[in-house]
Amino acid sequence: MRTSSTIRTRVTVKRTTRAAAALAAGALALSLTACGDDDKGDDSGDKGGGTKQPGVSVTLPKLDGESLSVAAVWTGTEQKNFKQVLTEFEKRTGAKVTFVPAQDPIINFLGSKIAGGAPPDVAMLPQPGAIKQAVDKGWAKPLGAEATKELGENYSQGWQGIGKVGGKQYGVYYKAANKSLIWYNARVFENAGAAEPKTWDELLNTAQMVYDSGVTPFSVGGADGWTLTDWFENVYLSQAGPEKYDQLAQHKIKWTDPSVKEALTTLAEIWGKKDFVAGGASGALQTEFPASVTQAFTGGDQPKAGMVYEGDFAQVNIGETKAKVGTDAKVFPFPAVGDTAPVVSGGDAAVILKDSKAAQALATWLASPDAAAIQAKLGGFLSPNKSIDSSVYPNEVQKKIADALIAAGDDFRFDMSDQAPQAFGGTPGKGEWKTLQDFLKNPKDVAGAQAKLEADAAAAYGG
């Protein structure tokens, strides 16, 4: 999952019924309130005895002397926080776990490791398409009985289903993220006399007010092409609707469809507006996601930009500045472009590559509320685990986001690019990522962008 640091949270979930969208959007519209929580871990402690202890929800085996490795593209604070989850697993089982930093696309990284005879035991895969590829290549191993049981107790059928291939359970969606949020510098909005917009037209008006006050409206992390696909998906889902979304996701309609033209034309109202994007297109294309967040919250009331679009995980990057979530940094739901505001989530799945008692135990652990609670307390993290107590989240907005995610149940859809073959939807410098970067550079060329998207999609999908 593109998450904080390099943000690899790409399982973008689209809740499409109006009831679910209204529920989540309503929860997210609440004002952010900072709720400090300095707890850095979960001290409940089965040290690997194979039986549950008071306050411990999951049974893990003794693994003294065992060692295993976990690969993920997470870096920075996100990697640091995940390592605390692994440390607790070590305490409870006696196993030794090594974190292996991976590169994007992770499937290619894993392929090189496997070819070299040194695959990690478990990999965190950010696309359902990547899970299918790992299964098709014979790399992924099905979850065992204990991991499957833990998953069944703690996850909705929908979240279980997206980790299945051919009816077998391969993935544990450990991490999720709400990606229908726009964060803003509260002082900039106050100086501009701007209010939180609820529709796309209101967002454009708000952006103009921010611009007129002397601050560039938007920060865009265009160096990471996945952020641009997220922009497109929010606009497209809200504007074209879920049925068209499903058709485009499966390439049952072409990218030259008029609905795609409409969405790209809408995006160009921001991307193509002179001085609406910090650094212009060239600056945005050199800005990675973490910097796109921090530059909106450094510089007091004169930052490089007043707003930045992306998920709840942006809180981790905001935390690297002096801005305080709930006072200096606030958030509103991605505005409705069509009849209904989009609600988007994402996630990363743990997939076993080397079937062993230790690897199965780690998958079981990651499916437990105990594991999720540790990282939830640290912030910048959202779990689809319905058994976690949302009070563990470190601030009110994170809690509301988590409650809305769980309340949505099985009513969701995945990120379009994550359902696509990775060559089209998940590879830097290629396919959708590259074409949308080119479109950011030249938002007037809607037809050219559509033609390139369709050509690349047709090649990736096989016609």
UniProtKB/TrEMBL annotation:
Recorded superkingdom: Bacteria
Coiled coil: none
Pfam families, per the entry: SBP_bac_1
Residues in the signal sequence: 1-36
Keyword set, alphabetical order: Signal, Transport
Classification via PROSITE patterns: PROKAR_LIPOPROTEIN (PS51257)
Region annotation (Disordered) ranges: 39-59
Family under the similarity heading: Belongs to the bacterial solute-binding protein 1 family.
Protein name: ABC transporter substrate-binding protein
